[in-house]
Write the structure tokens for this entry.
Amino acid sequence: MSRSPHYIKLLNSRRWRALRMAAIKRTKGLCEQCSAEGRISAATEVHHIRPVESVKDPIVMEQLAFDPANLKALCHRCHQEAHLLMHKGSNEERRRRTKEDVERFHRQMFGEDPE
Ligand SMILES: [Zn+2]
Ligand SMILES: [Zn+2]
């Protein structure tokens, strides 16, 4: 999946950073997926349930990116799982590539490795 410049710009905005913080605070800093499965994990990442890049229109992209109902506070592991699940029929190679995608994405977004 290639990152559109518009998307990168959205995620580098103050508005996104504030919303991201709010999404994590909303769950009291806990991973929503882990909580649903009876585990306690710290949410460190915020996931878009409907991928922002599933649309081409910058206006719609922005709506998806900043819609609190489209956000999920997740731990790193659940975030990776969420992305793996979006790639239907994934084989080994795809899993590996998706993991690399997520890691590259994190370096772009936060200037650091996710671990
Ligand atoms: Zn989790
Ligand atoms: Zn995600």
